[in-house]
Amino acid sequence: MKLHVTSFLLVTLFYYNICLVGSSGLHEVFTWTRITFVDPDSQFYRPRHAAISNKNRFTYSGGDAVVFPDDVPVSSTSTMPSLDINAEDSNLEYIYENNVPMGANRWKNKLFITIPRRRLGVPSTLNYVPIDKPERHNVPLIPYPDLKTNAVKAPADQEHIVSAYRVAIDACDRLWVADSGVVETLGNQTQLGQQKIVIIDLNTDKIIKTYRFKDSDLTHATVLTMSVVDVTADNCDDAYAYFPDLAGFGLVVYSLKQDDSWRVKHNYFYLEPQAGEFRIGGIPFQWNDGIFSAALTDVLEDGSRDVIFHAMAGTHLYSVSTKILKDKELATRSYHHDDFKVLGDRGRGSQTSASDLHKSSGVLFLAMVNQNAVGCWNTNKPFDPKNFDIVQRNDTTMIYPADLKISGDDIIVLTNTMPVFLYSFLDYDEVNFRVWMNEVKVAVKGTNCDN
């Protein structure tokens, strides 16, 4: 696949191109008014009205609260006293208002859902729901690989994941987590551990690698919420992972084979000041997030790939070859010459959180937060208005697409109404969180991205 670059500014590209004829778009596959949890192996809590079979498995039959063994429900923040992160039972605390899903990804019959600990009261940060079950609404999340691994606090010899925003799944059936190690509270952050990579073998549900980032990889402002893994199924040991640092304005590269990491710096990783204005869910605000997401092309003739990336507070797309990123000496040099390319300006209102590329078709999907929409560009065609389009937009049901993944030939999008959560109040009697899916070829049918 070859990326075509032009200097044409797409000033009105996404902002006005919102009405499609013949587009199939995306379908809601899971919805939640609020998030609850269930763990078949836990002695600590279970959903109200859950029945326990002779095989000690839970059968969910409704209810919306996590309860402890004495069946006393844990109430919401309106009646629950302030929580103490140092309390002995902090691993079990649950406040449903503070559980906002941020990431979604799929492996076989598991749909992984991450809930970063942006507030206290999140029992488990890495979870899944079974896709092959008929339940689709308010399905409780199952901690993955277990509740113990998701403990806020753990003994020094116990591996655990403090806070995960999104996860990557590679061609070798491995799940990659960037753990921030931080529990956030209003006006405060508690660093409970080093920022690290956790790799889990999905076939065994076991942690097979933990790598703690070096001080030289990070800044005082570093936030690693997204990752993309560069590997082929026939060479699993030689994997590279790329972690955008949205607040530190950099890119961290990790080599599994070398067991080493390094930080890449470039001006294209910064925010674009004119693109920091957002209005989502009727709420105006400013964000200054830099490089937020990166997507990999298919393998090129020389064996490399291109990485397409962008800032959240930005409207341009950029690219760089993995030949540069994989070479520590080249990646960390102070001047990059023409290593980095400007692909073009997507235009007003096109600020994007997550993006991913369907490699076989060359279609890049963009989670456009300022438009409550999913957009697309066929990268086999020039960077031109006629080759961009909107896959789906809805100002009521698609408020804030927080994550977007390509899984096989399917697109997965999670919307979570997060700005309303941050700056106002969610109505927990209404659907707030959704996961959308469809086949890529069906989703883009009738759009300018259709091959």
Automatic annotation (TrEMBL):
Record's signal peptide: 1-25
Swiss-Prot/TrEMBL keywords: Secreted, Signal
Pfam short name (any one): MRJP
Superkingdom as given in the UniProt entry: Eukaryota
Gene3D superfamilies: TolB, C-terminal domain (2.120.10.30)
UniProt keyword Secreted present: yes
Protein's recorded name: Major royal jelly protein
One cellular-component annotation, GO: extracellular region
PANTHER family in alphabetical order: PROTEIN YELLOW-RELATED, RH54244P
